[in-house]
Amino acid sequence: MEPFARLTAVAAPMDLPNIDTDRIIPARFLRRPRESGFGPLLFHDVRFGADGGERADFVLNRPAYREARILVTAENFGCGSSREMAVWALLDHGIRVVIGPSFGDIFFENCFKNGALAIVVPGETASGLRDALAARPGTRLTVDLEAQTIAGADGPPIRFEVDAFRKHGLLTGRDELALTLEQLPAIEAFEARRRVEMPWLG
Amino acid sequence: MSRTMFEKIWSRHVVAKGPGGQALLYVDRHLLHEGSTHAFGRLEKKGRAVRRPEACVATADHYVPTAPGAGEIADPEVRRMVADLGRHTGRLGITFFGRGEPRQGIVHVIGPEQGVTQPGILLVCGDSHTATHGAFGALAFGVGSTEVEHVLATQCLWQRKPRVMRITVTGTRPFGVMAKDVILSIIARIGAGGGVGYALEYAGPAIRAMSMDERMTVCNMSIEAGARAGMVAPDETTFAYLEGRPFAPRGDLWGRALAHWRTLPSDPDAIFDQEIALDSALIAPTVTWGTSPQDALPITGRVPDPAAVGDPARRASMERALAYMGLIPGAPLAGTAVSRVFIGSCTNSRLEDLRAAAGIARGRRAAVPAWVVPGSGAVKRAAEAEGLDRIFTEAGFEWREPGCSMCVGMNGDTAAAGERVASTSNRNFEGRQGRGARTHLMSPSMAAAAAVTGRLTDVRTLG
Which one, B67, B131, B154, B378, has least CB within 10 Å? Predict the structure, then answer.
């Protein structure tokens, strides 16, 4: 996993609440292998018309937001299915950070497992950011994970919370599997205890 | 100290604690499907072993064709995916219900049916509707593909403890109101994001009175309210369902398991982070009108008018949903013409669902194409033994092979752009059942009523 520390990039606003993972990547593309690249499939059915042409009204197709690497979203972004390809599509398109008032729980987890940073901020902060980005299209934000700040919009940097476990994982790009395998003695002890206490589970 | 059922199960599964409130949890049972092949492939490439193959059960559901008597899989890509799952499970010694295996079916139907799902366990699957298994008093939730790989390799998972919300459903459901109407009403009440960061516990007399099939329908859609897990305390209904199932404990072990299971329900004075109450006597047959499961109303209602909504974001969202759905504000929901009907999915493809739909189809005739896709081979055989298949086929419904089918359309079972589908599935998202397809979610009996009238119909009027 590619580590993440700090990013300065164009940010794009997405105002609709409850953008589900089916909209982020339609189910018919999920069978593709990881290596095939999911970037062109991101938001496919709202980004492209039935004829395959770009829809001019879709935010990431607008000239000012084409280079966006940060998304500022509304409530419950990434709700719905557990498809990790939603995060792959964002990453392959170049988007490394999503900022919003809330996220689908599984999507949120999938972000951190793949080196994307999902930041929860209060609803007013998110809508303020979206308004600022819409008022000045092409605005660049700086997201600093070490300092836990978002800068570049109006006013002082916005501080955000991220749990220490996820922060460390992103900063180091660590292999979580390897980390867990260090706990092998604890896992074995747990299994031994479980065999005695709940033998019906095998 | 008093504890919730969630707390009892969670604390029993903590292997180690990490920073930031994270816990390493032990996974008792892991269900897999074709979507898990990404994870198997990565493990194979890294040369890592599967820690406990005997804790895994796999099935083919998302991609399998469901056409009646489906033969070879025509699509070479899909054929390869299903074959890959067979190869990986074969080399690793994982139980696999592949195509043609009599126990094959939708992962959230076969787990409970085989007795793999049990009270008090922690169960995961790379699918967001894994909350279904919470109906047994298990902690069950969906995970992404990296987490699938992690569980395969370590039998554990890092998680941050969610808060717990209790949803108490009182009263007696009126005639024509099914479990689906209850959960759609709950989602409409708390919103599609209302359960984000929570595990839900469904409680109260209306939940206690439900069968296991009904409880599974309720828990299944927890994720549509934003909650990764939803659960119901185990009771005599649960134990009676489980006893004698192939993977359930037997003999002395059954007795020991039962003693443990009886300790699981939340203590009477346990404190929840949030409490919601709902009277099921006030619920009517419900349909969705928009593109989020929270957009649900009684069938007696009218299409809502965005102009009447103050919040501009909500208004914009409604306008977009109505444009996609092709609905006019103020129009009655009942009477809206549908193009086709889908009865199936991990929400509503179990025997009781099919009985309810057949009860409406009996002696009537489908006015539009209507599919019935049983949740598993076992459900299909049980339904056929009761003659439900004949009721459906005589009414002009199509009786198909088990799989996820048109709930998600990954296998090619999709509706065309502009088609309006009365569906017993769980998501009415834009494009969910096919690009441009319009989904109305409802119960199996409401879907059957739509099939025989060709319109969204209040099932109570069919008598």
Answer: B67
CA distance A152 to A142: 6
Residue B395's SS3 state is coil
pLDDT in tens, B418-433: 999 999 999 999 999 9
Residue B282 lies in a domain: no
Residue B70 clears pLDDT 70, i.e. is over it: no
Q: Say which residue the tokens 């997405």 belong to.
A: A14
The average pLDDT across B317-344 equals 98
Interface of B with A in 137-166 (CB under 8 A): 141-147, 149-150, 153-156, 158, 160, 162
Shared-domain flag, residues B207 and B330: no
Distance from CA of B395 to the nearest CA of A (A): 32
Does B397 reside within a domain? yes
Q: What average pLDDT does the segment B195-209 reach? A: 98
Which runs of consecutive H residues, i.e. helices, occur in B130-208?
Answer: 145-154, 179-190, 205-208
Count of alpha carbons within 13 angstroms of residue B255, beta-carbon side: 2
Contact of B35 with chain A, judged by CB distance below 8 Å, is answered with: yes
What does the alpha-carbon distance between residue B457 and residue B335 come to, in Å, rounded to a whole number?
6
pLDDT band of residue B71 (cuts 50, 70, 90) is: confident
A73 touches chain B (CB under 8 A): no
Tokens 């009447």, residue located:
B308
DSSP B322-388: HHHHT--TT-BSTT-B-SEEEE-TTTS-SHHHHHHHHHHHTT---SS-EEE--SBHHHHHHHHHTTH
Per-residue DSSP letter, B425 = S
The closest CB to that of B292, out of A18, A50, A74, belongs to A18
Fold for the domain defined by A6-173: Aconitase; domain 4 (3.20.19)
Pairing of strands B29-32, B56-59: parallel
- Find the domain containing B40 and state its range: 5-274
Inform me whether the pLDDT recorded for B330 exceeds 70: yes
Residues B116 and B186 in one domain: yes
Choosing from B274, B298, B313, the residue where a domain stops is B274
Per-residue pLDDT tens digits of chain A, which is 202 residues long: 899 999 999 999 999 999 999 999 999 999 998 999 999 999 999 999 999 999 999 999 999 999 999 999 999 999 999 999 999 999 999 999 999 999 999 999 999 999 999 999 999 999 999 999 999 999 999 999 999 999 998 789 999 999 999 999 999 999 899 899 999 999 999 999 999 999 999 9
| CA distances in angstroms from B199 to A105, A118, B269, B384, listed in the order given | 11, 21, 18, 37
Residue B113 maps to a domain: yes
**Which residues, including other chains, have CB under 8 Å from residue B183's CB and lie 6 or more apart?**
B217, B218, B220, B221, B224
Which of A22, A26, A102 has its CB closest to that of B196? A102
Query: What's the structural domain count of chain B?
Result: 2
Q: Any idea which of B169-173, B188-192, B409-413 has the lowest mean pLDDT?
A: B409-413
The gap between the terminal CA atoms of chain B, to the nearest Å, is 51
Confidence of residue B72 (pLDDT cuts 50, 70, 90): confident
Q: Would you call A51 an interface residue with chain B, using a CB distance cutoff of 8 Å?
A: no
Cα–Cα dist B114/B129, whole Å: 18
The reply to whether B408 and B295 lie within a common domain is: yes
Residue of B77, B123, B151, B156 best to disrupt the A interface, most CBs of A under 10 A: B156
